[in-house]
Amino acid sequence: QVQLVESGGGLVQPGGSLRLSCAASGFMFTTYRMRWYRQAPGKERELVAGISSTGGITNYADDVKGRFTISRDNAKNTVYLQMNILKPEDTAVYYCNAFEIIRKIDYWGKGTLVTVSS
């Protein structure tokens, strides 16, 4: 069955770094766009970063540009989110999303919590 399993979340001090991973299985990973979303307490889920199926195109939310980097390893069926210069407002549950544009298929992981606090 389809699985997206996030890992790498945790507690980090402001200015620190974390690297999130999302391991995918059960579908043709190389044909899916991959995205990271986040949802902070009391707020709606928002798009953080996206990457095309080949990895050649990336996009970011304005407030993470220059700090976060999305990448993927299609040989490992894994997508990553490198997060640097973390701020308290980055605190959220981060979700991995796989999207197949032609058939409009969406898969979601269960999320990993990132807490930025001193």
Helix/strand structural class? mainly beta
- Give me the Rg, rounded: 14 Å
Give the overall average pLDDT: 97
Question: What is the tally of beta strands?
Answer: 11
SSE order, as H and E?
Answer: EEEEEEEEEEE
Low-confidence stretches: none
Number of helices: 0
Overall form: globular
Helix content: under 10%
Give the biggest sheet. 7 strands, mixed
For the record, give the distance between the C-alpha atoms at the N and C termini, rounded to a whole number: 40 Å
Strand content: over 45%
Put the structure in a nutshell.
With 118 residues, this protein is mainly beta.
Descriptive notes:
By secondary structure, this protein is an all-beta fold. About 0% of the residues lie in helices and about 55% in strands. It has strands at about 5, 10, 20-25, 35-40, 45-50, 60, 70-75, 80-85, 90-100, 105-110, 110-115. Strands 2, 4, 5, 6, 9, 10 and 11 form a seven-stranded mixed beta sheet that branches. A four-stranded antiparallel beta sheet has the order 1-3-8-7, with no helix packed on it. Strand 9 (about 90-100) and strand 10 (about 105-110) form a beta hairpin. The chain is globular, with a radius of gyration of 14 Å. The termini are far apart. About 30% of the residues are buried.
